[in-house]
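Q: Hi! Curious about what Carbon-nitrogen family hydrolase looks like structurally. Here's the sequence.
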Amino acid sequence: MQLDVDLSVPKADRLAETLRLVRERADDHLVVLPELWLPGGWDYARWDEDAETLDGPTAQALAEAARDAGVWLHGGSIVERGDDGAHYNTSLVFGPDGALRATYRKIHRFGFDSGEAALMGPGADLVTLATPFGTLGLATCYDLRFPEMFRLLLDRGAEVLVVPAAWPARRVEHWRLLARARAVENQVFVLACNTAGSQAGLAQGGHSVVVDPWGEIVAEAGPEGRVLTAEIDTALVAKTRADFPVLKDRRVG
Ligand SMILES: NC(=O)CC(=O)C(=O)O
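A: Let's find out. The predicted structure is below.
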């Protein structure tokens, strides 16, 4: 869901509207929300006040919505208040029973020593998760610029890379290019879910995109907030790798 993160709308209203959209989905869906859609990926001043634990109110609300709809829900990311007192940009994935199946702390923090890079702790662990849609490999936004991370996810069995983001409009062509590059070089699906609208005066890029293992765009949003849907057949991962077995020619790693 490419959410228009309008921070002038009260948080409770934005949460309620997003949960309503999740509950509208049918039970054979994997629903993906963007990065930091509730606190805002770019409004650093909100992060401390909005930080939550992994069993906090946002996680509980997402779990309930996943269970009510019977969907797998990648809930985008929250500002996690870690046990060590640090904040992390953490993604949450819920099963259709509402159980929290995976969490991923963003490894590469954006900001070149300021912003997220200064305010959030770095994640340390790669995360994959077996689902009926294939094995998911979890990444967030800026991670997309680091191909070595995706190779490691590939080596752990990832077939569908899920990348929530708050990627600005001024670099949206990098976003589109990198999403396709990660799909082509790893022969995987990429589900890249961005924010729309404007946060802290920064126009967001939209253009959420679903890319298949051949690098073809299966579905792509424009700049506006909307629900983007696509049908994916994970068998295409094995087929692409068998028909064009480029990964067998790796010499490093
Ligand atoms: N917002 C991010 O984490 C990454 C980003 O904006 C980029 O250009 O990279």
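A: A fun detail: The two ends are 35 Å apart (CA to CA).
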